[in-house]
Amino acid sequence: MANKLVIKVTAGADAPERCSQAFTVAAVAVASGVEVSLWLTGESAWFALPDRAAQFELPHSAPLPDLLDAVLAGGRVTLCTQCAARRDITEQDVIEGVRIAGAQLFVSEIMPDGVQALVY
């Protein structure tokens, strides 16, 4: 069993089911004691901003702000550098606990033995 799970979520409000699945898996993994790194890329980049997760709605799913809070409390959330730049998002704009980093760090996170990576 992997001791670390890296999840790259590319979907946001444009594909709500994929987005919700990624956040749900991340939050459940954190609750299960797995080390989690959740990467926000593409349209999910917007969820690095305060109050953006509260605007997300999907019937019969856990509230996105609760899932994001769970991951921030027990895991790591990273916003893609290029995705942030394309949206004019800076370090000063993001929720406390969200870092901005690029592909080099993503690759270093997924390369060690025992790491599983999922892309949504």
Automatic annotation (TrEMBL):
One Pfam family linked to the record: DsrE
InterPro entries xrefs: DsrEFH-like (IPR027396), Sulphur_relay_DsrE/F-like (IPR003787)
Protein name from the UniProt record: Sulfur reduction protein DsrE
UniProt lineage: Bacteria, Bacillati, Actinomycetota, Actinomycetes, Kitasatosporales
